[in-house]
Design goal:
heterodimer; A: seven-stranded mixed beta sheet; two-stranded antiparallel ribbon; 12 helices; B: five-stranded mixed beta sheet; 30% helix
């Protein structure tokens, strides 16, 4: 090739490249076609490089330099175009992938424990720290464990305190968790610190504040030398943990056949002068201890029971016992412990 | 008990007129004031007495309690002169030891016995014979019930004896009662005139025309009175006192007080024409030794003086027979012989009169050790994150079934209703039996909410179920044993977690469906998660549990033992209960889970690549996909590490379901060759064809 031919060739090549660089590609495919046509192995720039071997002398270097420059410029332009097109495509894609996150999320719902379970677990925590082991006992009981073993003989008026469900088989639905106490005492262990909780049953007409089924929590502690003052100290500690340090507590005499002395713990209500009994307690009756083979001169016991249903009503601001056992998901699902 | 404050003040000089202070004092003395009623400036307290204290059922008893608390003296009511020594006008017999003392006072009344102003002021005006009002008033004052007979209606004699056959009576209240055989009655020669300790009969009651009366004052055996009153369905003021034990020494003073008041109001025109007092034996004299150091120990009051202890006891009526620093010998008053038997009782007496709030409470020292959770509680703690995380809300439903509930279950499987444990004395009809399953009440709870517009409900409960009959295939003795083991045919108790739901699994607005098949599998997924978390391997097999939909149910087994079941409730239940939705239910036995839990050992991971192959098998519509899975696993083919079901598809028009099983091959020592895997699959397919007559499809 002559020098003038070379120059002409380069000029037309440059003009073609400049023409490309004035374009705006519509798509990445179009851009790729152009890249292949100009920069591919068989593209026009490579083809021009192949002409170098036909050029001799100093013109060869100048020709090569101009070709390199053309290639670099074209590559740079195409890269920039590719980026522009990719960004545009990405923007479209992202726009198409829009999810309206202002919509409500999908979830399986919010599980909740029942207010009574909350209260029971709270008491569990307090009592386990004090070394009490939680045990369970049957709800369908014999009269022996529910009454006789607890110094409530047949036909004693104390049985009136606990209207009882009798089954046709002669068993009873336990009227108090104290029946568990009887079963534990039977094992004749000492010292002994156990607590029990769960459903208890009373055969009475149901209304807003009386249920045939409600929940109790009870503990017994058997050791040598336990005293009434210690029982009251323990009750005070537990009630302060449950109701807060500032809640006023007072004790009143009670009668329970299985404890002697028997006491009730009351907390001051929201109205001054109003007190609510929240717990019954006492020193385990010597007759009960003797009945299980303990010597009351050597072993004494304290027992303490709480109505967890009422405590749950108080804790969750539910006005009636009936509300504690209602199944309204709008209430149960929304309660905050 | 109704306590007129004015009457109380006639027995004790209260330090203050404040009703609030009096109320607090009574509360702290164990006489809880339930209500305060003020009428015409007269206050009447309703008090709840302690269940063992008959003496509290009188103003005297209450006043005595306060006197001891406040260290005040009691004012005794006027008793008047001694009663006549003349005999009553008819023979009186006490034919039973169950009546330790029986007294009759015969009075001759004027034509008109006006109402006593003190009595009327307290009890109000009445149309009864005014002597009957006086008797009631004296009972309120002194706690001794008395009964007034019209002497002219008594035929020949009075005797106290048991009856051998049930007997119908018409009582003072005009109602008819059956007096049970064995009851103690008062009778004349021809008829029963009173049921001892409970109520008098209309046939001998005093009316306004009565002039000659016999006033009965006695004591009767507490248990006999209680049994009789219960059998008659009666609870009277008199039976309340006699059931708890009345004061034998109050029998005669009460008659004297009645005579005094009657004479007073009649201007001396009432005459005591006869008196008899039959007594089995003198009242017991009971002595109890008290160590004052024990009282100081129990109260944590080391400086509590013996003098204060004895003073308080004396105010309560106890006699001090002997005193030393380590021993007080006290005699028990007649009105406390029923409940004071040992030293501990005396401790209570002192503490009560001191005031419990004087005791210096002392927190006992405790070893800092936290006991382990019980197995059941440990299971609950283990599963709750999954159950709560899945959106289940805990409920507590009734443990009872009404007769209609039992009949409904019986309609699903004849005989099922008969397996319920029945309550024989339920007051409410809804408490006819105790439940063997919680499904009815839980379903009611769900549908109660559905009826209020809530669509998607998930609830769970920890019920105790009462059974030993294996109604649902469980074996309480060997697998599902509850707190009451199945010994000697006694009913067992099963503690379970019961989960029930209706509606969609998820809440939200995108792609939420409440397709019951899909939701049942989601509930099953929760069951599987729970069991996996506890390390309990389970399989679910087809079942025939009557309370579930016959086609949508499965039994959950661990090592071939029943530990629970899952499925949709039987549509008939929803239909009969008029539920808008038929819930899905799953139940797991907590004791079985506790027994089966295991800790997972360390997992060894092979360094060599695993090969996964999916095979899709054509399986009949009701054929168990899990059985096929079990067969594959049981083959224990070399290098087949795991197999799971990953897809299930029913194509319309195709008789077989397409179930895809993912086979995972891996060797711990080398990379498996394609040919080995292919050969293993061939063996597997041959086995499936042989055992289940199934093959690959698609």
């Amino acid at each position: 090739m002559t020098a003038s031919l070379n120059e002409h060739y380069l000029t037309s090549l440059s003009q073609a490249v400049e023409a490309i660089q004035t374009r705006q590609f519509a798509s990445l495919a179009e851009l790729e076609d152009t890249r292949r046509l100009w920069l591919g192995k068989s593209g026009k720039i490579k083809e021009a490089f192949r002409l170098l071997k036909e050029i001799g002398g100093p013109e060869r270097a100048a020709f090569a330099a101009q070709l390199n420059s053309l290639q670099v410029n074209l590559e740079s332009f195409l890269r920039a175009e590719e980026e522009r097109l990719s960004a545009a495509a990405e923007a479209i894609q992202l726009a198409n992938e829009f999810v309206d996150l202002t919509l409500p999320g999908t979830h399986p719902g919010f599980g909740k424990l029942h207010p009574i379970t909350h209260v029971e677990r709270h008491i569990d925590d307090i009592l386990r720290q004090c070394g009490f082991k939680i045990v369970y006992g049957p709800e369908l009981e014999t009269e022996f464990y529910c009454f006789d073993a607890l110094n409530i003989p047949k036909h004693h008026p104390a049985r009136d305190m606990q209207d009882t469900f009798f089954t046709e088989d002669g068993l009873v639905l336990r009227t108090h968790t104290t029946s568990v106490q009887a079963r534990i005492l039977e094992k004749r262990e000492c010292p002994l610190k156990i607590a029990s909780r769960g459903r208890v049953y009373r055969n009475e007409t149901e209304d807003a504040d009386h249920r045939a089924i409600f929940h109790q929590y009870e503990l017994i502690w058997l050791d040598s030398g336990l005293t009434l003052a210690q029982l009251m100290g323990l009750i005070t500690f537990i009630l302060r943990e449950l109701y807060g340090k500032r809640k006023k507590i007072r004790f009143v005499p009670k009668f329970y056949p299985y404890t002697e002395p028997s006491i009730g713990a009351q907390i001051e209500g929201t109205t001054a002068g109003e007190w609510a009994t929240v717990a019954g307690a006492g020193m385990i009756h010597p007759k009960v201890l003797e009945g299980f083979g303990y010597d009351p001169k050597k072993v004494s016991g304290i027992a303490f029971g709480l109505g967890t249903s009422r405590l749950a009503a108080q804790s969750f601001d539910l006005p009636h016992l009936r509300d504690v056992y209602a199944h309204d998901m709008r209430i149960l699902g929304g309660l905050v412990a | 008990m109704k306590l007129p404050v004015a009457l109380l003040k006639s027995f004790i000089e209260l330090p203050s007129d404040s009703l609030e202070e009096l109320r607090a004092l009574l509360d702290e003395s164990g006489l809880e004031v339930k209500n305060v009623e003020i009428t015409n400036e007269k206050a009447i307290f309703t008090i709840e007495t302690l269940a063992n204290r008959a003496d509290h059922a009188s103003v005297l008893g209450v006043a005595r309690e306060l006197a001891s608390r406040l260290a005040l003296s009691l004012k005794s009511p006027q008793l008047g002169i001694a009663l006549t020594e003349a005999k009553v006008s008819l023979p009186v017999r006490r034919n039973t030891p169950l009546c330790p003392r029986y007294a009759l006072l015969e009075l001759l009344l004027p034509d008109i016995l006006p109402a006593h102003p003190d009595v009327e002021a307290i009890l109000g005006a009445s149309e009864r014979h005014s002597l009957v009002d006086i008797a009631n008033y004296v009972q309120l004052e002194l706690g001794q019930p008395m009964h007034v007979f019209d002497r002219d209606k008594i035929d020949g004699e009075i005797s106290v004896a048991g009856i051998e056959q049930d007997q119908e009576i018409i009582a003072l209240d005009g109602k008819s009662y059956t007096v049970p055989s064995g009851a103690l009655v008062i009778r004349d020669r021809v008829k029963v005139v009173a049921v001892a300790g409970v109520i008098g009969c209309a046939n001998s009651m005093a009316d306004t025309s009565t002039r000659r009366v016999l006033v009965e004052s006695a004591t009767f055996d507490p248990i006999k009175v209680r049994l009789t009153a219960r059998a008659m369905g009666l609870a009277t003021d008199a039976s309340f006192i006699f059931e708890r034990g009345s004061d034998r020494e109050m029998i005669v003073p009460a008659l004297r007080r009645l005579f005094f008041l009657a004479k007073q109001v009649s201007g001396g025109n009432v005459k005591d024409v006869g008196f008899i007092n039959l007594e089995a034996a003198p009242t017991e004299r009971r002595l109890i030794t008290v160590d004052p150091r024990n009282i100081r120990k129990h109260t944590n009051l080391p400086r509590l003086a013996d003098a204060e202890i004895t003073t308080r006891l004396k105010h309560l009526g106890f006699g001090l027979e002997k005193a030393s620093p380590t021993e007080l010998l006290v005699s028990v008053p007649s009105w406390r012989l029923w409940d004071i038997t040992r030293e501990e009782d005396m401790v209570e007496e002192v503490v009560r009169t001191l005031g419990l709030n004087r005791v210096k409470a002392l927190l006992p020292s405790m070893e800092p050790s936290i006991p382990e959770l019980s197995p059941i509680d440990a299971v609950k703690v283990g599963i709750e994150p999954y159950v709560l995380g899945a959106g289940f809300v805990e409920v507590i439903t009734s443990g009872f079934y009404a007769e209609r509930d039992i009949q409904l279950l019986d309609s699903l499987q004849p005989g099922l209703g008969g397996k319920h444990i029945r309550i024989k004395n339920a007051i409410e009809q809804d408490h006819s039996g105790i439940r063997i399953t919680p499904i009815l009440h839980m379903g009611d709870a769900i549908n109660w909410n559905v009826a209020r517009g809530l669509s998607d409900i998930k609830i769970f409960e920890y019920p105790v179920l009462f059974t030993n009959f294996g109604e649902f295939g469980e074996n309480p003795k060997n697998g599902g044993g509850g707190d009451r083991p199945n010994n000697d045919g006694e009913p067992a108790e099963r503690a379970v977690i019961a989960m029930m739901m209706a509606g969609a699994w998820e809440r939200g607005c995108l792609g939420i469906t409440d397709d019951s098949a899909a939701t049942t599998l989601k509930l099953k997924g929760l069951v599987e998660s729970i069991c996996e978390a506890l390390g309990v391997e389970i399989t679910v097999v087809t079942s025939k549990i009557p309370v579930l939909h016959p086609g949508i149910q499965g039994r959950i087994l661990h090592k071939r033992k029943h530990i629970g079941f899952i499925g949709q409730l039987h549509p008939r239940i929803a239909d009969r209960r008029k539920w808008k939705r038929t819930p899905i239910y799953a139940e797991l036995d907590l004791h079985s889970l506790a027994a089966a839990r295991s800790k997972r050992g360390a997992v060894t991971v092979s360094q060599y690549p695993e090969v996964r192959r999916d095979i899709t098998l054509g399986i009949g519509a009701t054929y168990s996909a899990a059985r096929v899975l079990k067969t594959i696993r049981d083959l224990e083919l070399a290098a087949l590490r795991d197999c799971e079901i990953v897809s299930h598809f029913v194509k319309e028009g195709e008789p077989l379901r397409r179930v895809t099983y993912r086979l995972t091959f891996q060797d711990s020592h080398r990379t498996l060759a394609k040919e080995e895997v292919d050969a293993t699959i061939e063996v597997l397919l041959a086995n499936l064809s042989d055992k289940h007559q199934i093959a690959m499809v698609g």
